[in-house]
């Protein structure tokens, strides 16, 4: 049986926004299993996608060419019988893998001048299209720009979490599955400029718990976000019902908790896009990034951005030193947006 190989991006949010590509590939060839080659931090996200048959974790060091290792791995892939490969990272080193594996049809963007390694070459629009469309276009003929009718037909990202996963994640986190859950994602891997201030998150947590005394507010993130989430807890006054779970759950468990949440408030981060793909009510807070480039797609979603003259600067740190694009988004503004979401869940 022929198979399809998808080589994953390195970022969680990008992996989520690539999921509609898999929906389109599966619709075109429902009989063809789809395997994903993904770095360890991103692999759990692909396991929550119904279209994925097997997730293979990349054995390569970040940034290293490791040509011999790629050649050995390619020989393993050759035996699996792939009809085609979709190379989502734009780097040369990932395009080498399907070429070395002898996969006949190798689809991707131009990237680092990958002529020959990629033999179905796509070119991005100018200005760049939103990320969901960027990846989904690889399932379509290599034409630019993507026709408007095809843009409208692109499905939304979709993740799934089972009841068993949710129950196990709640038990590990010490959360009561019978009580309302609101999830906050105060971190952002890209840099501090993308983070709504911890004090603002803390004030929002106080508002939620005052209005809903039976609620639980879970702060989610990686171990790198632990200190930021501790700042949120301190700013909130360490109330009962506020849980710092950053680094205390695996990514798969965080996915399950988000699937259980009545609403999610997040910076522009991977957890935002996970919440959107799980179709949870979500508030996305944007500062230095463009809300139109990677918006949430939930049925109930709100993007908050002040759209200042200096944004989107797309910088890791505020180049002007004030971070007004995030500092001036008041907790009360977010609370006013969150209240009707919680009332409808």
Structure description:
The strands form two sheets. A six-stranded parallel sheet has the order 3-2-1-4-5-6, with helices on both faces. Strands 9-8-7-10-11-12 form a six-stranded parallel sheet, sandwiched between helices. It has two domains: about 5-145, Rossmann fold, CATH 3.40.50; about 165-345, Rossmann fold, CATH 3.40.50.2000. It has 14 helices and twelve strands. With about 350 residues, it is of the alpha/beta class. Helix 4 crosses helix 5 and helix 8 (about 165-175) crosses helix 11 (about 250-260). Strand 4 (about 80-85), helix 5 and strand 5 form a beta-alpha-beta unit. Helix content is about 35%, strand content about 15%. It is globular and about 60 Å long. This is lipopolysaccharide heptosyltransferase II. InterPro entries: Glyco_trans_9, LPS_LOS_Heptosyltrfase, RfaF. One of its GO terms (molecular function) is ADP-heptose-lipopolysaccharide heptosyltransferase activity. Its EC number is 2.4.99.24.
Question: Could you outline the blueprint of secondary structure elements for this entry?
Answer:
Elements: E1 3-7, H1 12-17, H2 19-28, E2 34-38, H3 43-46, E3 52-57, H4 67-78, E4 82-87, H5 92-100, E5 105-109, E6 120-122, H6 131-136, H7 148-153, H8 163-173, E7 181-185, H9 198-211, E8 216-219, H10 226-236, E9 242-244, H11 251-260, E10 263-267, H12 270-277, E11 282-285, E12 301-304, H13 324-327, H14 331-344
Helix pairs in contact: 4-5, 8-11, 9-10, 9-14
GO biological process, one term: lipopolysaccharide core region biosynthetic process
InterPro entries: Glyco_trans_9, LPS_LOS_Heptosyltrfase, RfaF
GO molecular function: ADP-heptose-lipopolysaccharide heptosyltransferase activity
